[in-house]
Amino acid sequence: MRRLRFCMVSTFYPPYSYGGDGITVQRLARALVGAGHDVTVVHDADAYTALGHPPPDAVREASDGIDVVTLRSAAPRLSALLTHQTGRPVVQGRAISRFLASGEFDVVHFHNVSLVGGVGVLSCAPAAATTLYTAHEHWLICPTHVLWRHRREPCDKRECVRCSLRYHRPPQLWRQTDFFERQLRHVDTFMALSEFSRGKHREFGFPFPMDVLPPLVADAPLVAGDEAASPHPRPYFLCVARLEPIKGLHTVIPLFQSDAPADLIIAGAGSQEAELRALAGNSSRIHFIGRLTSEQLWRYYRHAIAHIAASICYETFGNTIVEAFQQATPVVARRRGPFPELVEQASAGMLFSDDGELRQALASLAADPAARDRLGDAGRRAYEARWSEGAVLPQYLDIVARTRAQGRDRPASSPVVAVAP
User: Fold this and answer.
1) pTM of the entire predicted model
2) In a designed cystine with 418, which of 59, 84, 94, 407 is the match (CB 3.0 to 4.6 A)?
3) Residue 395: CB partners within 8 Å, gap ≥ 6?
């Protein structure tokens, strides 16, 4: 494939990022640059700050060959609110359209666009560019992104207005109009991160076909040599997750407060941190280590008995599961969402549906290091074959080539409603 110019459009991008979608975009962008392509990322700092996140600790170093365009306005909360309520890039629309038109991009790849312009941003791509969309979350079928209805249960039918109010968010009435589907028609190819997520989109009435392409997890060596020593003095299980209710850590902590077979290390930060620390009490078996970089986490993954993936909502993928496999560490995952799909594809872990099954899985792995190592080795092999840069990037470029080769029948670009920032 000849050298191409890619533009990634994403609400979040490091360091203005707090979840997996921004990291996933960065990993893909870096892989494309490494393969000889040109990549520009457009993201919205307004969305990050409007959601109450503190300023990033450090500015991004421009050493990876990616051009980054950071959108800002004088009124970040107003900008985010207008996008949320209209589904359009009201404040930044003209700037985005001008930039995309001037860049002569071969491919415009939309990611999480919820607050970088909503579905209205999809018509900003020039007609000559191939357009892709990756559903990092379930936002295309769920206003709250996560199919966690009324903040208490997995969603199996639409109650979107009442559910949005439960999240203290105003309903998005534009979702009930033909504007939504008309904007989606500006995308040439949609991609889901897992078979499970593609099925959920279909179940909830998403009207377009989707390819399945998992996110790539950037290549990393197995921790060894000088880094071989465990970062913790006792055997431990590891949870890597945002500290939010949907991640299910409150269901795991009670199992480590008495006769657990090993310690529990929790890596991450989030709105539930104080509640989880209170739940852990003064237990000497439970340790919070905060949010770490991918490189800092390698050693924690490598020496864990297993990584526990306990999300109670419907995820679209499981980056931390694959990160554990990368370091030859097995996974104990809740039997929900895409987790069974990943564990079964790798033959590298155990599944649970309730506390009893989780307790049994933890005890089994802690008591049998040889079985733990066999599962971990299978995970490493599966990572290399399915989710490494060498496995995923060729699939991505094949989708790009196929999409560029097929005829496109998109509607004419819609005028962008905009106000001065």
Assistant:
1) 0.93
2) 94
3) 213
